[in-house]
Structures are given as structure tokens and as C-alpha cells.
């Protein structure tokens, strides 16, 4: 099996960084729809970079963006 680039441990760090960026960018939206769209886009990109499912990344990112103000992460 050929080596993957980037290595698994770097992909995990990248995913954690992109998740943090999603939270910060989602806070920039003025309403739930804007935050969900930003979260979905960032989640999809994070999933694509780390080799995960693009659809799952977009769904999780979209949910995180839409709900971040409800749980007190962003206002």
C-alpha cells in the first residue's frame, strides 16, 4: 500500500485546526443560515483534505455552524 500524504498524524492535526477555523468563521455569520453555509463548506473541505466523507463533513460542519449560537459558542 503506498504511503499517504500527508501522514495520518498530520491529517488529524489539520482536521483539528480546520474545526477550530470553522467555529471562528461560523461566528461571522449574522444568522443561522449563513453560519450553517460557512460550516458546511469548511466541514466539506476538512473532510476532503483528511480523506473523510465529503457529505458527512458538510453535514457535521453545517450543523455545527447552525447551532453554535444556541450552545453559546458564537453570538
List descriptors.
about 70% helix; about 0% strand; single chain; mainly alpha; about 80 residues
- Specify the biggest β-sheet: none
Mean pLDDT: 77
Structure annotation, total helices: 3
Low-confidence stretches: none
Strand content: under 5%
**What series of H and E elements makes up the topology?**
HHH
Q: Structural class, judged by helices and strands?
A: mainly alpha
Tertiary shape: elongated
Query: Can you give the helix content as a percent range?
Result: 55-70%
Give the oligomeric state of the chains in this entry, treating copies of one chain as homo and distinct chains as hetero: single chain
What's the count of strands?
0
The gyration radius over C-alpha positions equals 13 Å
How would you describe this structure to a colleague?
The protein is mainly alpha-helical and 75 residues long. It has a domain at 26-75. 69% of the residues lie in helices and 0% in strands. The protein contains three helices and no strands. It has helices at 8-26, 32-50, 54-67. It is elongated, with a radius of gyration of 13 Å. It starts with 7 loop residues before the first helix and ends in an 8-residue tail after the last helix.
Amino acid at each position: 500500500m503506498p504511503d499517504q500524504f500527508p501522514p495520518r498524524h498530520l491529517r488529524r492535526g489539520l482536521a483539528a485546526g480546520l474545526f477550530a477555523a470553522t467555529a471562528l468563521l461560523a461566528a461571522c455569520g449574522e444568522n443561522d443560515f449563513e453560519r450553517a453555509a460557512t460550516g458546511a463548506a469548511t466541514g466539506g473541505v476538512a473532510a476532503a483534505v483528511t480523506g473523510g466523507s465529503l457529505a458527512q463533513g458538510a453535514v457535521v460542519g453545517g450543523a455545527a455552524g447552525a447551532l453554535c449560537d444556541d450552545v453559546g459558542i458564537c453570538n
